[in-house]
Amino acid sequence: MGGVLIERTPLISEIRTVPAPRVRRPDEPIIRCGLIGYGQWGREIGVELEKTGRARVAAVADHFELMLTRASRELPEVEGYTDYRAILDNSEIPAVLIATPTHTHRQIVLDALSAGKHVYCEAPLASTVEDARAIAAAARSASTQIFQCGLLFRSHPQYRSLFGFIRSGAIGRAAMVRSQWRKKVSWRRASATEERERELNWRLDPALSIGLAGEIGIHQIDAASWFLNGLPLASTGFGSIALWDDGREAPDTIQAVVEYPGSVRMVYDATLTSSFDAMVDEFVGSDSTIMIRDQNAWMFKEVDAPLLGWEVYARKDRFYRETGVALVADATKLAAQGIDPTQVDPYPETPLHYALQDFLDNNLIGPYEPSAGYRTGYEATVAAVRVNESVTTGRSVLLAASDFEI
């Protein structure tokens, strides 16, 4: 049988009908949220939450007091705590968002769920399979509470549109996936004290971090699992310190070949040494290849591929020797409103914004199963941990179905 679908019983999350993000109604309550961790990503979450107009950061917890001082300047009327449990004790805060270092997630999530809070936890869930399984099991048991993992592409309208497009068989039989992430940045951060500097640079410590494969690659690996309707079977990886030879042990450059059912392989590379070509994902099939770049997507058809009909009217963009058909989510709906879909920016917000909208929708009009619930988050974390294991050891690592059981 042709087409992209892998013929097996899917273990990953299936298609769900998820309401599109909505603007706030005048009579809709503002959700009071607690933000645990006010580092770089925590601040991004705070900004995007306030932008929605549907939530307010009522409290911030960070054990480094300078971060609380910063939060008081940047967020209106926010309460600051050095102990996150003070937020959990506040009955007027129903939801918390966790943006602390990955290896610290487990206890915070368990405490938050035990306190009856709805939880948004950044991806990956944890730096070990054991910790991720404990989080997923606790979220499963808290059946009346919302748990969402911060897998950004699961909520993004472009990726959700492409999911249905690819799973419909539009690329033909899947052959391979090629993904990359490149940015010239050291990941090292300075501080006035040795203790604080060591704390800030947890990503450079292999004992605490799952490196580029986990902290960055998890989103692209998860997208491959989602689109291919399968979970990784094996990974062979390589890692090196190509530029930032500053005493770190974690590789600044990695490559991995991740095997999926049906002999489909994902070739993934990431580096902190170069920004050239940034982030690109390609889903290669017998009828066409889908390329995703900067939240936009194009289809490159093979000459012998069947005509779909609509593509002759779509915008065409030239890429060196190839011509790509622009894929715009909701293009038909826009056209029906008299709007030229090629003349508007269909995704004006950041991927984080759409993920937070998903979380807020679940709090306000749900509950429905989040686009990235505990099972999806767990499966993606297991895959990322094992890919990183192959990178750091330089060996092939096999993944069994039992690895993904909670």
What is the fold named in CATH at topology level of the largest domain? Dihydrodipicolinate Reductase, domain 2
Oligomerization state of this entry?
single chain
Q: Which overall shape is indicated by the principal axes computed on the Cα atoms?
A: globular
- Quickly count the domains: 2
- The CATH top-level class label of the largest domain: Alpha Beta
What is the N-to-C succession of helices and strands? EHEHEHEHEHEHEHHHEEEEEEEEHHHE
Report Rg: 21 Å
User: What is the average per-residue confidence, as pLDDT, rounded to a whole number?
Assistant: 89
CATH architecture name of the largest domain: 2-Layer Sandwich
Q: Compute the separation of the termini in Å.
A: 32 Å
The residue ranges in which pLDDT falls below 50 over 5 or more consecutive positions are: 1-22
Task: Determine the strand fraction and express it as a percent band.
Answer: 15-25%
Largest sheet: 10 strands, mixed
Helix coverage percent: 25-40%
Order the strands across the largest sheet as they lie in space: 14-15-13-12-11-7-10-9-8-16
Q: Count of helical segments?
A: 12
CATH superfamily of the largest domain: Dihydrodipicolinate Reductase, domain 2
Could you please describe the fold and organization of this structure?
By secondary structure, the protein is of the alpha/beta class. The chain folds into two domains: 31-154 and 354-376, 3-Layer(aba) Sandwich (Rossmann fold), CATH 3.40.50.720; 157-348 and 383-398, Dihydrodipicolinate Reductase, domain 2, CATH 3.30.360.10. It has helices spanning 40-52, 65-74, 85-88, 105-114, 129-141, 157-167, 194-200, 211-215, 217-228, 331-336, 351-364, 374-393; strands at residues 31-36, 55-61, 79-81, 95-98, 118-122, 147-150, 174-182, 234-240, 253-260, 264-271, 280-285, 288-293, 296-301, 316-319, 322-327, 396-398. The strands form two sheets. The protein has a ten-stranded mixed beta sheet with strand order 14-15-13-12-11-7-10-9-8-16, with helices on one face. Strands 3-2-1-4-5-6 form a six-stranded parallel beta sheet, with helices on both faces. Strand 1 (31-36), helix 1 (40-52) and strand 2 (55-61) form a beta-alpha-beta unit. The protein is globular and about 65 Å long.
